[in-house]
Design brief:
Layout: E1 10-13, E2 16-19, H1 28-43, H2 47-64, H3 67-72, H4 75-83, H5 89-92
Antiparallel strand pairs: 1-2
Helix pairs in contact: 1-2, 1-4
């Protein structure tokens, strides 16, 4: 779904993947990154995923005192960024794989 006022290239809001531009909807890296978030949300039964995501961000914001560092160190984002370029990742991804990305 294209949302032109979106401030980022892509965003997963279960069950939708939102993108800023029509071309982003065909970018395999963006789509894979957001699909990883969909898998994370599904395995945590959706609402707990978003609560854990927010709590991890707030903890990181306190720890790093910087929005960008806090965001990039969310365990869910660490998995998604690390694996977004692997075209086979979603086929062999383990259940709760994000747990291996805690620092």
């Amino acid at each position: 779904m294209v949302v032109r006022r979106l401030k980022v290239s892509g965003m997963a809001v279960y069950p939708f993947i939102l993108v800023q531009k029509p071309t982003d909807a065909h970018d395999p890296v963006i789509i894979r990154h957001e699909t990883i978030h969909m898998k994370q949300a599904e395995e945590l039964f959706i609402i707990p995923f978003y609560l854990l995501y927010l709590l991890n961000y707030l903890f990181n914001l306190y720890k790093y005192r910087n929005h960008d560092q806090a965001y990039l160190n969310i365990v869910f984002e660490r998995e998604a960024y690390r694996c977004e370029r692997d075209s086979t990742y979603l086929q062999h991804r383990r259940l709760w794989a994000w747990r291996f990305y805690f620092k």
